[in-house]
Amino acid sequence: MADNQPEISSKFYPLPCMFTLASLFCGFYSMIASVNKDFMNAAIAILVAAIFDALDGRVARMTRTTSQFGVELDSLCDMVSFGVAPGLLAYLWALHPYGRYGWLAAFLYVAMTSLRLARFNSQDTKSATKDFVGLPCPAAAAMIVTSVLFCHYLGITGEVKHISLLLLVYLLSYLMVSTHKYLSFKNPKPGRFRTFQILVGMLLLFILIAAEHEVMLFLIFVLYTASGPSMAIYNRIRGLKKTPPVSSEHHLS
């Protein structure tokens, strides 16, 4: 049966794979830094890994070198950079004082990352919606990383112990495998926003991040993480308002 969609090549293309392997290198370096209690550099390494992860797919599409090999390699590297590395960082930075609850939270985060990636790879690519189902694992990793940066901004440079961080890891684990919809910026809808408005907004955001990057990055990912459950609650309330009330006369008949 003919298919209008072009088949993905199984060839090996070195250029996009180099960006993917650069992301893997940053994730591995983050784990080394976490073991050495250098949590700030471990967090920054994961952020750099996210940048390389965002670039590899775009480079592959721009150079028309998309391949099934690259897709599989990207998932394996994402598991390390956005699953194992932030899980280890979270455990050594904030979770190990809680004993088995701490390492179970770290394991749950890694396990949910693997399930999130497996579901993403097996979902229907021809679906009309381009939004993410569940919190993307790079965003979940960025939430942990920016928490480290924010604590550093507050003057906390070493290990921390606060119940909110333990709960945060459990929450991120749930959100990654949830059915909450998260906005994807890969394929923005044309005409949804005016180009000039986007330019002005991006410029203001860039200035704010440059001025207080530790605070602004933390707030950005808090808002993005909360956007999925918030939209679900909003749609639920809107759906209840649209449901017509059942007349009591029907019960009397």
Report the major sheet: 2 strands, antiparallel
Supply the number of structural domains. 1
Strand content: under 5%
Shape descriptor: globular
Number of separate strands: 2
Distance between the termini: 55 Å
The side-by-side strand order for the widest beta sheet comes to 1-2
Residue-averaged pLDDT: 85
Ranges with pLDDT <50 over ≥5 residues? 1-6
For the record, the CATH architecture stands as: Up-down Bundle
Work out the radius of gyration: 21 Å
- The CATH homologous superfamily: CDP-alcohol phosphotransferase transmembrane (TM) domain
Key descriptive features of the protein:
253 residues, mainly alpha, globular, disordered N terminus
Question: In short, what is this structure?
Answer:
The chain has 253 residues and is mostly helical. It has helices at residues 14-35, 39-62, 68-95, 100-122, 137-153, 163-177, 195-211, 213-242, 249-252, and strands at 132-133, 181-182. The protein has one domain: CDP-alcohol phosphotransferase transmembrane (TM) domain (Four Helix Bundle (Hemerythrin (Met), subunit A), Up-down Bundle).
Describe this structure in words.
The chain is mainly alpha-helical. It has one domain (14-122, 130-242): Four Helix Bundle (Hemerythrin (Met), subunit A) (Up-down Bundle). The protein contains nine helices and two strands, in the order H-H-H-H-E-H-H-E-H-H-H. The protein has helices at residues 14-35, 39-62, 68-95, 100-122, 137-153, 163-177, 195-211, 213-242, 249-252, and strands at residues 132-133, 181-182. It has a two-stranded antiparallel ribbon with strand order 1-2. Helix 4 (100-122) runs parallel beside helix 6 (163-177). It starts with 13 loop residues before the first helix and ends with a helix. The model is unreliable at 1-6 (pLDDT under 50).
